[in-house]
Structure formats: C-alpha cells, structure tokens
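Appendix B: a complete holo record

For completeness, this appendix reproduces one full record from the ligand-bound portion of the collection. The bound molecule is copper (II) ion. The inputs are the chain sequence and the ligand SMILES; the output is the full three-dimensional arrangement of the complex, encoded as structure tokens. No fields have been trimmed.
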Amino acid sequence: MTHPLDPLAAEEIGLAAAIVRRDRAVGDTWRFASIELREPAKADLPALAAKAAGGETARREALVVCWNRADGQAYRATVSLTGDEVTNWEHLPGQQPNMTVDEWHECDEMLRAHPALAQALARRGITDLSLVLTDMWAYGGALVPERYRGLRIGWSDVWCRDSEQSNPYAHHVTGLHPVVDLNSMTLLELEDSYQEGAEAPGVMGEYLPRLIPTPLREVTPLEISQPAGVGFTLDGYQLSWQNWQLRIGFNHREGLVLHQVAFRDGERLRPVAHRLSFAEMVVPYRDASPDHYRRTAFDIGEWGLGFMTTSLTLGCDCLGEITYLDAVVHDSLGEPRTVPNAICVHEEDSGVLWKHVDERAGVEVRRQRRLVVSFHVTVANYEYLVYWRFYQDGNIECEVRATGILVTSHAGAPGSRPSNGTLVDDRTYAPFHQHFIVARLDLDIDGTGNTVYATESQPATAGGDDPYGLGLVVRNTPLRTEAEGKQDYNWDTQRAWKIVNNQVPNGLGTPVGYKLVPSAAFPPLLDPASPAYQRAEVIGHTLWVTPYHQDERWPCGDFPVQSEHDSGLAVWTTADRPIENTDVVLWYVFGIHHITRPEDWPVMPSDTVSFWLKPSGFFDRNPALDVPPSHPH
Ligand SMILES: [Cu+2]
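The structure of the chain with copper (II) ion bound, as generated:
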C-alpha cells in the first residue's frame, strides 16, 4: 500500500519522465532537473489516505522540472501518475532550474580535457590531469557578466591532489577559474591571474591515516546493543516509537522530510507538526577576492540535499541497532537512482531524563532515550549531517553538524584578501562564511488553528508591592500579520516563540502550546543592498511566519540558480496576510557563523548547532513520569 505522502518510488520517477517525454515531445536535447512527489494539499490528505488504506488506488502526482538545452527554456509539469497524463505544463521564461550532478561531472570532464586548462596548469608545473579536479559552482544573477546574460553558466575552481588518494581540496589552483556555458557545455573563458614564478604553498592537507604523519591514538571498543530489539516500529514510511508517531518522506531538494508528527497522549493522538524539513541553505562567503566573490551557495535550491545524500555505514555513521531506509532520486535523463541506506532510524541513550535524591525514598532516576532520524549530505567539499530527535518528554531537537573540507586559497595571490579569512596552512587561508539554514516548520499544535506569540521576559520595576524589583514579567505578544511575523532574536528579553492553539485548553485551563526555543541564530551582517542579501532576504530575520499555502515551499524562490532577487518569503509576505488563529508555517533561520579556525583544517571536526521545539503547556505535567527505571548493574 502506498500512502499519499510516500516519496516517489523508482518506477514512479521513471514513469513521470516517460509521460512528460511522450506528451510534451521532450527529446534528446532535454534534461530533467527534478522529479518529485506532488504532495496532496493538506485538506485532501485524510480522504486520500483513507482511500489508500482501503486498498483503492489514491491519486499520485509528480512535479517535474525540465529544460531544453538547445534553447535554454525551462518548464514545470504536473504529471498525474495514476491518470497517465501531463495535467499542467508551465513555461518558466528566464528561470534556471536547479543544477544537476550530471552537469557537474560533465563540466569536470570537459574542462580536464580542454587544452586551455592544460596549458594554464602546465605553466604552474601541473601536467598530470588525472590529479586535477574542477568544481563547478552556480552564479548569482547580478554577478553574471553582461555578455553571458540569459545563458546557464557556471564558474569553477581548479584543485590538484598530491597523489591518487589525496585530498582533492587540499591544493587550490588559486587565480584560475573557468567560466562555462552549461547548456552547450563549452568553456566561455578561462580567468587566469597567474604570475610567472609564483610558488604554490607547501600545504599538508591530508586526513587519510596512511597519508598523515601522526600515528593513530588508541581507543577501546564501545558497543551499543539492544538485546531485546529496537523500541520502534517502521511500517512502510510510518514510524512509531513510544508516544511518537510520524511519517518519513524524502525528495531531491529537502532530502529528509518528516510528516504528520504526533504524540500519543492517553487515548488521544495529538498532532504537533504537519511537516518538518529544511527548505533552503544560504552560504555566502565573505571574501571579495577574485577567488571567492562569486561563492554564494544555495545548497538546497541550487544543488538539493536529496541529490547530495550519501549512503550511511553501520558502526561508523550510526552506532547501535540501526534501521536504514533507501532513498530514490534521479539523474538528468530522468533515470531513477537509489541511494542505499540514505536515512537512519535508531534509538539513543541521552543521559539522565529526570532525577531526585530524597532522604527517605532514596534515589529515583530515569535514563533518557531519544529516537533519531537522520541523513548525511556531501556537497562537494562540505558535509552536512542532519538529525531530528524525538524525546520522551515531548521535546523535538533539530541538530546539524557541519564537517568536511574548508575552501581555501593562497594568501599571496593577486587580489587575495586573507583578512577576510583565517590562515590554516602555509600561505593558505580559509575565507569566513556563513551557513544560514532555513527550517520550514509546518506546525499543527492539536490542530491547524494556531497563533504564534513572541514570548519575552522583562524585569519588573522596583516599587509598590515589589520594593526590591525582584519580579520578572513574561509578556506574550500575538503575531497577527506576516509583517509582525518577521521576528529577530533578542538576547535582552530572551525572546522565544510559542505556537498556541487557543481552542484547546490543557488540564490547567490554559491553551496548549509548543515553544520554538531559538539557538544558533545570527544576523546576516550584510548590506541589504548587496546582491547576496537581495537573493536571500530570508536571512534578514530569525523567524518568519506565513499562513500555510501548498505552493509556498522555497523561501528564496523556486529557482535560486542565477537569481537576482528573493522571490519567496520576501514576496509572499508583502501581502501581509493574517496569521492569527491560522494554519501557520514557521520559517526558522539558524546555522553556523563560520569564522574559520586552524583546527578546522585539513578536515573539520563537526561544528554542531541545533534548535528545539519544546512542549509549553501542551501537557499538564511532566509527560515522562511513566518512564520505567533502568536496572542497576
Ligand atoms: Cu563553514
């Protein structure tokens, strides 16, 4: 049985491509940028799910974006998989679909076979092209040279390994940047600022044990076993663990998606979130030098966390009793590609849940467990590890770990600005940059009629019945419109946001709610007029709140490749729609303000950030009183 929210299966991806080819004369010069499930509108879900559960075929649709490389024109199709037809075909003039893995590889192959690149490298003493890697990035629209406007173009770094297995990102061929027409897959120009006699730095950029000069330290084995089996059940994509229930989803762009997250509270299955995912990641590098000024990645909108998802390894990526799910994406010809072991589900011990030592009753202590759903992505040099964790006390934690290899370049190169980065090796620096992640949180706290409150603490003024000024007043301000929904972190008042259902009182008579506890928030520190900010106005606030709309998914616009302006949140919210007592979507902006360190080189120890969703009056008391004690041994 296929649930209406199950990701597209391999056959469905192939079928979607085949229907578009057949009905829209999509031929050999075309490429498929994305093929994903078109999720049913929220209102249609219960009926479709009931139909599917009853064994009937429920409507399945795909969203397909493709373009013709011959003329550069892009189109978006809605495909009825159950009806075997294209039901909508939309021309997207002036839009560039997401970058594809195939283009990245084809570009690398073309460049490494190009005599101009070979010549430029030979001048630097690099003659073995098998050691060379080119790494193509997408452009921001405002930075595309006038003469190339309208083309689908990429720019590239050039890297050279020391040896076959060496770190490809250890040696930047600084000052050398091919600019490529990706549709004709031809080299448009080769920027080269090499000065005769310049010597490459002596970088030690290796991390493989056999390539590092340090012996490995000793560690004793640490095993995790669950002799009686795991505590969760997975039925298709439906996951249940203790009081939690949710559905796992996946697509090319967001990667892991969590649907219909609910908490069983006695007889009631109480909705908490309809859908949780990462909708964008904006990574501006803050270095204006010729090697870095174009480096403004949209890892989700340009490349896609799903496309970049890598397989996980038991005992290394994940420890304990692990259940894996495969994911299916596709190549640019529309052929499905399976990522084995893409999503990891497991339980973890998480220290003490609660404890008290009483003189008479003695020690009462409970160990805490959490259910973790995670996936890892590798976007060229960088990895992002994403963990959604569900706790016994109703908390949800979203953690991201950034690791991998920093982008570096030579400090002494023409136009170089090492003051915008940190020296990490011999004459080599890593530019400062920021990773803004936008989590899209479609919360449904006990239903869809929710209101978001900014909740802030203020000290009382001394006087009257509080002569010592000890009081602390908590002020809850309802956010009534999208304009009010644009919220910034405020340390002075310890601002957080409470998502409340005013129709549902808890046992104490106050409305039920969950709190978004902000952390890892940081300001853009960018001129609002700058091209990088203009493309990603979402980074200008910690939180945005919008009313749910099925098609509002991408905060920087549907197609950030070569975009000049943010056509997502920045545009939708100009309508200033009401958000009070509404089905709200929260867009939380957090991440890593990455002031690079020597310790991040040559491979970066995970930098960990997270935020929490915590029940706040959702329950009447600690919902984890019923957790049994562990057996001492
Ligand atoms: Cu970073």
